Prior knowledge:
The chain has 17 helices and 24 strands. With about 550 residues, it is of the alpha/beta class. It has 3 domains: about 1-165, Formyl transferase, N-terminal domain (Rossmann fold); about 170-260, Methionyl-tRNA Fmet Formyltransferase, Chain A, domain 2 (Roll), CATH 3.10.25.10; about 285-525, Alpha-Beta Complex (2-enoyl-CoA Hydratase, Chain A, domain 1), CATH 3.90.226. The strands form 5 sheets. Strands 2-1-3-4-6-7 form a 6-stranded mixed beta sheet, with helices on both faces. A hairpin with a 2-residue loop joins strand 15 (about 285-290) and strand 16. The radius of gyration is 24 Å and the shape is globular. Bound molecules: coenzyme A and (6S)-5,6,7,8-tetrahydrofolate (THG). (6S)-5,6,7,8-tetrahydrofolate (THG) binds near residues 60, 65, 83 and 111.
Amino acid sequence: MRILFLCYRFNSLSQRLYCELTERGHEVSVELDVHPELTIEAAELYKPDLIIAPFLKRKIPPEVWKKYPTLIVHPGPPGDRGPHAIDWAILNNVKEWGVILLEASEEYDAGDIWAFRTFPIRFARKSSLYRNEITEGAVECVLEAIESLERGKISKTPQGEKYNWNKIEKERRRINWEEDSTEDVLRKIYASDSQPGATATLQGEEYYLYNAYPEEELKGKPGEIIAIRDEAICIGTGDGAIWITHLREKRKDSIKLPAVRVLKNIKAPEIPLKPWEKVDFKTYREIVYEEEKGVAYIYFNFYNGAMSTEQCYRLLETIRYAKKRPVKAIVLMGQEDFFSNGMNLNTIENAESPPDESWRNINAIDDVCEEILKTPDKLTVAGMQGNAGAGGVFMALNCDFVFAREGVVLNPHYKNIGNLYGSEFWTYILPRRVGWEMGKEVMENRMPISSRKAKEIGLIDDVFGKTPKEFRKLLKGKLEKFINSREYYEFIERKKRERTSPKWEEEIRKAREHELEKMKLNFYGFDTSYHIARYYFVHRKPHFRTPPYLAKHRRKIKL
Ligand code: COA
Ligand code: THG
């Protein structure tokens, strides 16, 4: 089938659906929501069999949906309508939620339902529900709808006259430190994360708050900052305390940044907690180190999967700790929503000199990668529970084994932010994993690929598990078996021989040097496209045209 996607942004759900459909042989073209006239033009240029809107905020004009079957993914169950579906469910403590695929109509979200799925709600960030439960449900709905369309047997159910309009007023996202309990505060922040953010007063000023964790030990006056840890702040609530890792100032053009880079003059003490220190109460830890049956697992809860220079060095410290421990394997786990998205473009944008900060950040990631590569006596593994992009993918590929959850979307290229050359030892890894021909193809293809496809082309080693929980369980089982096998010892012997030879060390040194030389040109050279692309990305600027790599229908030369 020829399918046209209409989306506000080519976000994670749109990318996942793109992979699922193209890898099943459908042809998909994408039009971003720039102007209704352009949406009509896109439909007329492409003449699709079906239009899908995975993530759209504006009305699709009737010229489009009256002519082509047009289906909208709405992140709510049957009977729910409006722009704040998941937000509403979290704020109202709903136990079960859902996702529907419905026909576009004159009124918002009022068309007939083609397919739906429901699921129990986790008490988690909206974006986490979106990236997991909603995404999985939406994929099933879309596949079901395509099958019905192909069979010519479509059964629809009406949205109904009685419905829930889920719009959330700004006031409901505001935190009242005196009255709100820790759970109330968490609920408000979860419901508004990653957009638009809950609001609260801190040190007399208004801010947007993101990425909250409960604290059970520390206590303080409601609304007062009582501690700092890894650039996050701990704030007293009505009945306890809470950690916030990211803030955004309430002014035009502000961006999300680590809390301590936004708030100046914090009087609270730093209360450090190393990733491997054990505590038996809930608190915030950016990196968690756990040992289980001879294996070290490193979870890094980096917001949005972005790794700043400082975060890379905290991760590096943890890897060095693991290397000294009597474990047979070290596993990088990332977090559930993202494995890693490479350098932190927000902290770079915020730096006094973005080129200098880019240089520090890329060197810090390379230090992490080099530490992984130079682990001759232990198995290194990447366990990708969530999506990864750019440097985040290549960091994972530095491990001996790379495993990913089913449904993970990878962007194994550096094309999206101003055509960076890339580092993380990709020039060493890629030919080893897939050969030069395929390596070139991977790097030049700007589109995402599924973890399944990545396995097929040999980029990663295996794919299993539908949910992050299932993935972790299967991964642990696999590793336990492998590290107690004969193959393991043979593998480590071979690895030791290779990784202690001067020839290998020279190859690694050269790869890093070559890549960084090219990156220096991206950061400091004549071509400023990286700096411009980064500016548009971190400020979440809407697109003003759909780039031809997405819009097949706008390519002059038909591919
Ligand atoms: N450095 C810094 N930041 C990075 C990064 C890097 N290297 N790589 C990724 N990121 C950030 C992006 O800036 C983005 O940040 P933000 O979400 O804080 O703005 C985030 O990581 C991932 O972006 P995206 O791909 O757009 O996210 P997503 O698709 O996984 O999730 C939604 C975003 C959809 C949850 C969010 O837009 C939302 O809340 N939408 C409302 C729900 C909905 O679907 N409504 C439909 C209308 S009814
Ligand atoms: N029919 C048609 N087009 C559509 C939908 C449809 N486009 C996408 C849309 N569904 C997705 N759902 C919504 C539902 C409500 C709103 C937006 C998208 C909404 N928007 C507010 C507005 O436009 O005033 C502003 C949103 C906000 O507060 O942030 O209410 O079913 N043809």
